[in-house]
Structures are given as structure tokens and as C-alpha cells.
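Note on ligand handling. Small-molecule inputs were canonicalized before submission; formal charges were left as drawn, and no protonation-state enumeration was performed. Where a ligand contained multiple stereocentres, the stereochemistry in the source SMILES was retained. For adenosine-5'-triphosphate, this procedure yielded the string shown in the input block below.
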Amino acid sequence: MASLKDDVLAKLASVSGPDGVPLSASARLSEIVAGDGKVFFSITVDAAQVKAWESAREHAEAAVRALPGVQSVMIALTAERAGGAGAASPPRRPPPAAGATSPREALHASPGPAGPAGIPGVAAIIAVASGKGGVGKSTIAVNLALGLRDLGLKVGILDADIYGPSLPKLLAIREKPRTVGGTRLRPIVRHDMPVMSIGFLIEEETPMIWRGPMVMSALTQMLREVEWGSLDVMVVDMPPGTGDAQLTMAQQVPLKGAVIVSTPQDLALIDARRGIAMFRRVNVPVIGIVENMSMFICPHCGERSDIFGHGGARREAERLHVPFLGEVPLALDIREKSDLGTPVVANDPDGAHAKAFRAIAARVRDALAAESRPAPKIVIEA
Ligand SMILES: Nc1ncnc2c1ncn2[C@@H]1O[C@H](COP(=O)(O)OP(=O)(O)OP(=O)(O)O)[C@@H](O)[C@H]1O
Ligand SMILES: [Mg+2]
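Structure output:
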């Protein structure tokens, strides 16, 4: 008896891409994952031809959905990384007028390095990542996003942590996003920021085996089929680690930079180093390192103790020639407010922790603006 996968492949013989090649015979087709009534695969296309491929994607989806036993189909177009600077990218925002140099204007000024096609309307996408799990990445991602918002930027958050999406909890989101116009999703809005989480799209019980292929489809969907509106910065909470899943994500998301979170211990720092190496490998600039759980402030007496050896991340940043973005103490109210779904920057905006996060946010904003600013023209006088 033919498997569902064979049926899908046979069906795809009737759908051709703009290159005239039937999908079943196309080298662009990924592995087809099929089972349990669900079908997932991706088609790798040139970033400049995404529009042309969209109708082939829709036809393929309809054809596969018509197969008996198929309940859901997800087909993602994954854009190939462009070779040269700016190649194969959709039209970008116009260059800024002369003299337009505020950090916010600079953010929208120019594309990042060559990579996957950008998201229309989103000036900069940054990853918050760590080599090691549990170092406070999600906590930093949410509070950094709020800090950037407090600086007057329009910010969105995307939770791409396949292993344990935590934004629904950190932001007390219980509802699911609604679709608009049939296919696009409207993000949930919290603290004036649109939020999407992979947790909205993948059920908690989804077995790990499904997650790999689903993740890329879901990630593409969250980036490109969501009404993000116009954003200055999108903060992406990445899954921990530096394995294949993380590397693929770092390649597929059009990142302008990465913020690495580490605790001060040697073990975490070794993983932070791996994280930095991973982003460098895929040509994503490392914006800098944040030291989380930097020191412990006793909630009772206010006394400070450096239980994990404060300062390790700053020294590591210097050693690796990466900017140091700041430190966040290990503090009971950071954890308690996270657990309540009201991050500390929103809950206690005048407190010392909120100030620390805003200082980190300001460094991130300045780094992004500096990176986006067009290089000054050198005029050679005759
Ligand atoms: N500065 C801090 N002070 C106190 N608690 C913190 C701090 N940072 C994070 N935590 C707590 O540590 C735990 C792990 O944090 P978080 O979930 O942000 O880490 P993570 O790196 O995203 O983890 P994972 O790798 O599982 O995604 C949470 O309970 C969080 O509330
Ligand atoms: Mg997390």
C-alpha cells in the first residue's frame, strides 16, 4: 500500500512552479513529512521570486489537501540566502533623506547584511540567544523589548523557542491569535507590542519528531503571514543551544543582529562563545553580550553578593571583541513578576531593574542605528 508521502509526491506531479518543473521532480522540494493526516514540506526559492512561487505554493496546498486522509497541510517557501550584498531582496525602504540621522530613522535606513528577504514594514529583527538553556533569555527578551518600547520605538516580539515557548506565560497570554482575510494572523497585543509565539501554532503535546519540520513552516508563517504592522524592532526569543535547529533559524530569519545572554559562570560562558561563533558563521553581527544573574541582591537587607562570580561576561566580551551591553542582577522580583505575566519593566517602570533594562535597550538601539547608517561618502578632491 502506498504511503501518504508517496500519495503526496504523486499529487505534486500535477503542480509546477514558475520554472515549469513539476514539484515532484523539483530539486527545490524538501523532505516531505507526512503522517497522522498532517503534511509538511518546504520549497526553497530565490528570495526575489517568492511572489512568483506563491501561487504554486497555494496550488500545491490545495492539491495535497484534496487527498483522502489529509487533514492539514503546511507548505513553506523558504528563501535562499542571497549571495551578494542586497541581492535578491524585495524592495527596501527608500534611503533616508540627507540629515535624517535620529536613531529611529537610521534603523529604517538600510538593509542588514545579505540574507533572507526582510519582512516588509519591519526595520530590524534581532535575536536574543544563548548557547545554554535557562540563563534568562526569555526574561531578557521581554524586558529588552519593553525597554526599547520605552525609548519610543515600535517593537514586536516573536517567540521562536521550539523547545519551550515561554512568552504566553511571561505575558499572561491565554488567547490564540485570530486569522484575518482567511490566511493572515493578527498577533496578540500586550503592553502595546504585537506578540507571536510558536506556542500558538504548535500544540504542547506535539511530539519532538514533528517539531523540526514544523518549526521552519511555523517560523516562516510567523514572520511572513502575520499582520506585524510597521515595526522599528522585532525581538526574537530563540531556542537555547547551537545545534542544527538554531543554526537553521539563524539562517532563515532575516536578522540584523544577535544579543547573547549569559550568566557569569565559566560553563555558561563557554556556551555563549559557541553562540557567538554560530552567528558569526552565518554572518549575523553580534550586537553584544548581556550578563544575567550578574549578582544577587538580597530582597531583605539589600546586600549584594556575587554568587556566580560577577563580571565573567564582561571579560569574555572583551576577549572576543564583542560589545558588553550591561548586567542584570539575580533578583526575586524579576522572577516573581515574570511568573505573574507582568515583566518588571512594565510592572515597575521606575525601579532599578527597569533602568538597567532601558540602558541595555539604549545600547542595542544605538548599535542597530549605527549599523544601518549608510557609510559616509568619501569625496576625493581633484
Ligand atoms: N535576573 C533574574 N533574576 C531572577 N530570576 C531570573 C532572572 N532571569 C531569569 N530568571 C528566572 O530564571 C528562570 C529561567 O529564565 P528564562 O525562562 O528567561 O530562561 P531561558 O534562557 O529563556 O530558558 P530556556 O532556555 O528554558 O528558554 C525563570 O524562572 C526566570 O524567572
Ligand atoms: Mg526561554
